[in-house]
Amino acid sequence: MTAQLPDPRQPAPAQPALDLIPVLNLEEQEVDRQMRICNACRYCEGFCAVFPAMTRRLAFGKADIHYLANLCHNCGACLHACQYAQPHAFAVNVPQAMAKVRGQTYAEYAWPSPFGRLYRRNGVYVASALAVALSLFLLLALLVNGTLLPGRLAGNFYAVFPHNTLALMFGSVFAVAALALSVAVRRFWRSVSPANMQAQPAKGAVFEASHAALTLKYLDGGHGQGCNNADDRYTLWRRRFHHFTFYGFLLCFAATVVATGYHYLLGYPAPYPLLSAPVLLGTLGGVGLIVGPAGLLLLNLRRAPEQGDGAQRPMDRAFILLLLLVSATGLALLGLRDTAAMAILLAIHLGTVMALFITLPYGKFAHGLFRSAALFKFAIEKRRPNDLGLGGE
Length: 393
Prior knowledge:
Layout lengths: L25 H16 L8 H5 L7 H10 L5 H5 L12 H16 L12 H24 L17 H30 L2 H5 L5 H11 L11 E2 L5 E2 L1 H28 L12 H26 L10 H23 L6 H18 L6 H16 L12
Antiparallel strand pairs: 1-2
Helix pairs in contact: 1-5, 3-5, 3-14, 6-12, 6-13, 7-13, 7-14, 9-14, 10-11, 11-12, 12-13
């Protein structure tokens, strides 16, 4: 029987659109390889959210890998418990593999997209932003007052920089930073979440995800004793220092919001007494932003090289040091606001704050928002039948 050749006059039969399937890069392929090994072992299933999420999959596409990478808190517990870690031939190191992909996701989903390149040279970016912002405010102080030492101003910041000028500058930069972060997180969410998950979140998922994010639930190592940092010993200090940093930041933000309300709603401009709400909130927040970042920097310097992605440590340290500068200059300004040094301290403090605002969308700050989105997806996903046809948890 003679085989019938295809008619060249007819269109070729449709082929699977393989070019539409996202191709994994080397780092994503490594996560895929390790997740397949972990899915067969499952010894770490109770450690954190990554492993229950992993067990709902038999294969790992780009979206799955991006989701799991941001769900990982890099606590290191699974690495120190793994029987397949080096020197085993499988060389499993989930925290490190996840960290490398996680850094790529920040750049991939950044908005505007070309600005994603700033993640790769974040240390230089932060240093440049700080230098430019400091120069700007020192120059403005000279232009407004003719000198950086105008004498005692009784803590009146607006005698150095007009209120409307500060409100316009910082409001505009913060609004742009918030927009860039919002678009980036939305891009990430739409990429890793199916349409039905985006449209109908499961009941209780918001509360569960918020609780996990605000308490840093998955920095307890899965057993309540904490993370591994430099060796096999557990420590809760990484979780505690994160809490000091996060809630210190929130208290400082609350101080700004309250002071704004005093100014615009009550007609009560700064300076405020030491026992007023804005000053108390700002002082507590500043202390938190000294203790937290200082502790995180110490842990980062002592961290074992196999923990996380060494290439991202300049970004981590640049953000930590910038937070330390903001808090230290803010507390110094508060303590010396009635002295002749107030104007120069104010210019330095505002320069560090402006540098922080400029770098927020393209630095370490983004990890908290991406991770919160991943935790929200996990909270929704666990309430639904999984891809293997099994019931929810």
